[in-house]
Amino acid sequence: MRAGRGTPAIAVLGCYGAVGRSVVRRLREAGTGPLRLGGRDLDRVRALAGTGPGGPAGAEAATGGAATGEAVTGTAGAGAVEARAGADEAVAVDLRDAAALAAFCEGCHVVVNCAGPSSRILDTVARAALAAGAHYVDVAGDAAVRDRLAAAGLPTGSAARRGPADHGSDGPGFAGQGSDGPDSAGQGSAGHGSEGRGSGGRGRAGRVVVLSAGMMPGLSALLPRHLAGQGFDRVDRLTAHVGGVDRFTNAAALDYVASLSGGYATPLAVWRGHQVIPRASRPRRGVELPHFPGRVNAYPYLSAEAERLARSLGFAEVEWSSVFDGELTLAALARLHDLDADTAAGELVRASRLEAFGRTPYFQMVFRMEGEAAGRPVARTLVARAADSYELSAAVAVLAARAVLRGLVRPGLHEAADVLDAGAVFQALLDDPAVTRLEVVDDVSPAAEVEEGVL
C-alpha cells in the first residue's frame, strides 16, 4: 500500500471491537475519511467499512473483537485489502504477520490502535507504524509500552505538565503547543506538511506517539486536571470513584488481569503525605457513594497514573477506588489468583455480562477535590457518566488522533493527558451525545457510608 492521492489519513486497527467501532463512527462524524480499517476477521471489517458515514453506531454489542494476534480465518488471508473509490478500506491483519502489519500502516498519516490486549501487543503496532513513517495513537499503551519505545530511541515529548492555575491558557487540543496553533497545522512541528506521507517522512524522526489515549489511563487524569482549574488556588485532596455496571470485553479483561501483577496499580494503597502508603485502605461492601445509585462496592487502589497526577498537581492525599454495582464481578475478582490469565479473563467477561443482564449499563467517574481559594476551603466534584467506558475511551482517542493529524502535537513520545488540553476535552464531552451527565458541582459532602462488612 503506497501513499498516493486518496490514501486514508487515519488507519484504525481493531476497528470492530468495543472501542474501535466507536472510534470509526466518531471519525466519520467529524468528516475524517476515508479511513483504513483493520482487524483479523475480514468479514467483520468489511461489514463495518460498508456502513459508510452515518452508519449504525454500536450495532454490535461489546464483544472484545479487537485484533489479538490470532490468525485470520477465511480465504482472504492477512493483509488482504478491499476498497472502493471514496470509501473506507477494509484490511485483514494478523498481528503475528509483520509484513501484513507493515502494509496496513504504509501510507497512512496516523495509525490509531484499538486492538487488544495491550499487555500482549505491547509496542508491536507502534513499531510498525513508526517504521512506515506514520504517527501513532494508542487507546491503551501504559508504562511497559512507553519504556520499550523510549529504550528503542524514541525521544520523550517536551510538553510540560500543568498546574492548577494553568488550564485554559493554550488553544484547544494541545497543552503547551507554543506557536504551532491550528492555523499552522501544515507547518507545525509534527511535520504534517513538510514530511508528507511518502518515503521522505519515513522512520522515527519527527514522528508523534501518543499513548494512554483512552478512558483509564487518559481521561482519568484529564478530568481531575480540568477540575483543578475550576477556581482552586491550591489543591490538597482528591477522592475518585470510577465504575458502575460495565461489561468487560475479553481484551479489557486480559489487560485488567495483567494489571493486577504488572505494576500498573498498587491494590489497597493510598497517596498520603505526598507519598504512596501501601495497604492503607480496605475494600468496602454495600456503601452509599455520592452520585452512585443505591449501594455499591468499592475496591481501593493507587495506579501509576494517579501517582503521577498527585505529584504533578501537588496533592497531599489521593484515595482512588473502582466501583462495582453488583456482586458477581467482585466474586470473580476474588478468584483470579487461582487461575491462569486466559481463564481469569473469561471469568470476568462472563460475570460482568451476567451482572449487566436485565439492567441498564452505566459507567461513571466521580472526582471530589478539596483545596483552597482566596484563603478559604473549597470543595468541588466533577461527575462524568456514559453508557459504557468504551465510548469514553473512543472520545479521547479521536481527540488525540485529530490533534496529531492537524500537527498540534510536537514530535516524540507522549501520554494523552500531557498533550490534550483538559478544558477542551471537557468541552468536547459536554457536546458528546454518548455522555449522559457531565458537570462540576460545588461543595458536595460525602454521604454517610454504611458498611456491611469487608470484602
Task: Furnish the topology, listing elements before pairings.
Elements: E1 10-13, H1 18-29, E2 35-39, H2 42-49, E3 81-82, E4 89-92, H3 98-105, E5 110-113, H4 118-121, H5 124-131, E6 135-138, H6 143-151, H7 192-195, E7 208-211, H8 219-228, E8 234-245, H9 250-261, E9 265-267, E10 270-272, E11 275-277, E12 284-288, E13 295-303, H10 304-313, E14 317-324, H11 328-334, H12 341-356, E15 362-373, E16 376-386, H13 389-405, E17 412-415, H14 416-419, H15 422-430, E18 435-442
Parallel strand pairs: 1-2, 1-5, 2-4, 5-6, 6-7, 7-17, 8-14
Antiparallel strand pairs: 3-4, 8-15, 9-13, 10-11, 10-14, 12-13, 13-14, 15-16, 16-18
Helix pairs in contact: 1-13, 3-5, 8-10, 8-15, 9-12, 11-12
Describe what you observe in this structure:
It is a single chain. 30% of the residues lie in helices and 23% in strands. It has 15 helices and 18 strands. It has helices spanning 18-29, 42-49, 98-105, 118-121, 124-131, 143-151, 192-195, 219-228, 250-261, 304-313, 328-334, 341-356, 389-405, 416-419, 422-430; strands at 10-13, 35-39, 81-82, 89-92, 110-113, 135-138, 208-211, 234-245, 265-267, 270-272, 275-277, 284-288, 295-303, 317-324, 362-373, 376-386, 412-415, 435-442. Strand 10 (270-272) and strand 11 (275-277) form a beta hairpin. The N and C termini lie far apart (54 Å).
Unreliable spans are: 1-5, 51-79, 159-202, 444-455
Tertiary shape: globular
Major β-sheet, in short?
10 strands, mixed
Number of helices: 15
Using the CA coordinates, give the radius of gyration.
Answer: 21 Å
Question: What is the typical, i.e. mean, pLDDT?
Answer: 81
**Helix percentage range:** 25-40%
The structure class reads alpha/beta
How much strand? 15-25%
First-to-last CA distance: 54 Å
Strand segment tally: 18
Multimerization status: single chain
